Amino acid sequence: MRQRIMVLLGVFLAGCGGGGGGGSTPPQATGISESYYPVLTGADWVYDVNSIAPDSSVSTYINEMQITGTQPVAGINAWVFRESNPSGDGIAVDSYYAKDARAFVYLGDNSPASWVNAIINQVDFMRFDGTFSQTPLLDRKNVDIGTDLDGDGKDEHVDVKVTGVVEGYETLVLGAGSFSNAARIRYDIAGTLTLSAGGAVPITETVHEWRADGIGAIRQLVKATVGTQTSTETSDLRAVSVNGIKGGVFPPRDLLGGLANGDSDATRPGGPALSSDGIRYLLVSNRQGASGRQWIGQFIAADGALQQNIALSGAALSSLEGAPAVASNGNTYMTVMRDEAGLHAQRVSSDGVVLDPYPGAVLAANGRFPAVAYGNGQYLVAYYNYDPVQSTIRGVLVSSSGVVGADFLIGTVISGYSDMPSVAFDGRDFIVAWETGSSGLPDHDIVAARVSTAGALLDPVPIAISTAPDMQFAPRIACDPVNCLITWIDRRNYVGLNYATPGDMYGTFITREGVVLNGPPASGGLPLALGITTNSGDSSLVYTASGYILAWSQGAYVNNPGGPTGVYARRIGTDGSVSPAAAPGFALSGAPEAYTRLYYPALASISTGTLAVWLNNSEMMGSSKSIRGAFMWSPLSR
Prior knowledge:
The chain is mainly beta. The strands form 8 sheets. It has an 18-stranded mixed β-sheet that branches. It folds into 2 domains: 3-246, YmcC-like fold (Beta Barrel); 252-637, Neuraminidase. It contains 1 helix and 45 strands. A hairpin with a 5-residue loop joins strand 3 (44-52) and strand 4.
C-alpha cells in the first residue's frame, strides 16, 4: 500500500490503507527487519477498503496489489507495485519502490497527478540500519508542485514533514488470517499548502500501518485533515500470496465467458458443476453457438490459471437443461448432463481427454437434477424422476470404467414433488439427501438415505433430517472423516411470510450409522447463516482439510430488499462452529452490476485451497452471461 498526495478541497497528504490500535511496547527508533517487507515478482495482496469522506459519505471496495516486475526509475532498478483500485474508481496505478540492506524506499508512481511526485519521492518508508526514527523521513519546504489549484495562473507551494516510529507489536485477526507479532508503525505528516492567491491551508495526517513478518502490510489506518475537513480510510488484508504463503479470499474473475446472451432466463446456461482431482479443477457448463447449445468443460489450475477448454458435445443441442453434475475419482471425471438424449454420463480423463463421445452412457430418459459422488470404485448418480402420480428419487451406479448398473429406487416423493437431491460418500457408503413435500402446500422437509457401494438401499424408510415448520429445501451434503454435514435453506423463522423476506441456512451432522446429531428433526438443526434472502435459493457445501465451507447466493438485484446482494461463504468446523460469526460472512463476489443476478454457487477443494464458482447472469441486452469464480485459501496463522 502506498502513501500518496491527493486533492481534497485543495490538497491533502493521504495514505492507501486501513487500521487498528492498541499495544503497549515502547516506541522503537531502530525500525523493523527486512523480512517485514517481502519483495518478489508475483507477490499479491488484496485489501478490503472502507473510506469515509469529509461529508460522511462511505465507500467500500477491494484493492488488489501485485508486484509485476522491475523497471528503471531515476536511475534505480525499482520494483513495480500495481494497485488495481487504490482510490475506488477502478483506475489502476503503478507505484515504484527500491529495497536494499539500508531501507525500503518509495520512488513515486504513475498517477495522473504528476505534482504528487514533486512533493513526495525518494522517501524511506522504513530504514533497516537502526536510524528509522532518528531523523525525519521527509522534510521539504516551499516545494513548487507545478500545479495551479486556486485558479490564478500561478503554481502553489507546499511545506511537508514526515516522521515515523515503530510503536510496538501486537496480534491482529483479519480476513486473511491471524497475525501475531505484527509491527505497528506510525507515520506523522504535517505541512502547509501556500496558495499563490493568498492564504495557507494546514495539513495534518496520521498513518498507522501494521506489517507481519514474511507477509508485508496487513492493515493501515489513515486520518487526514486539511483545514477543517477530515477524511479517514481503512484497509484490511483480505488475501495474500507471497513466497509460497497463501491465505484468504481473492477477488472474483471470469472463468468461462460468452455463455448466453443477456436475458432473465437463468436456466440458460443454468448452474455450473465443479469438481477436482486433487491437482486441478474441472468446471462444466454450456454455451450458445450459432446452431445450438454445447456442453463444455474448462480445466483450471490450482493457482487459478485457465487451462484447456474441452467440448463435451456437438454444438447443436436444442433441449439442453442446466444443472449438470461432475465428480472425480482422482484420475477420471464423471460428468452428468440432461438434454434431448436424456440424462447421460461422459467420462473425462484428468489430462483432458473426453473418453466417452457424446452422449456417452444414457442413464435415464426422464432423469433430472443429477448429483454424483465417487467412492470405492463406483460413482453414484442420484436424480429426480418426475411422474404426475408418484415422483421418485432414483440412483444408478457407474464404474470407473464406465459400466452402468441398473437404476434403483432411493425414495418416493409425496404428491409428486421433489427436486435437487445431493449425494456424498462417507468413506463406507453413499448418503443421499433430498427435499420432499406436497406440491400444493408450503411445508417441505429434508430427508436422507444411505446407499451401499453395491447399490443396496440401507434406509428404505428415509431418515428425517428436518421437519421444522414451513419450507426446508435445497439440501447439500458433504462428509468429513467422522461424520457428514447436511445443510439446507430454512423458513421456520418466517412462517407464512412472502419469499422476498429473509430466510436462513441450517444444518445438522449425521453419523455413518444414520444418527442425526443436532436435535430432533422437528425443532433441531444448527443455525449457520441467519437473515439471508432465499429468492435466489442456491447454496453449495464442501469439506476441506480445515473444515467445511458453505456458500450461498443472497439477494437478486443490487439493493434487493432483505440484505446484501452477492455470493457469500462461511467456514463450519466439524464441531458446528461458524466463522466468521459476523453477518453476512465472506463476500466472495462483491455486489453484481445493475440488472445482473448471481446464481448457483458451486464449490470444490484441493489441498491448497478451494474454488467457488457461480453464474453471473447479466440481463442487459447486448451483454452476455459468464461463470465467475473466486479462490479461497485457509486463513493464515502466523
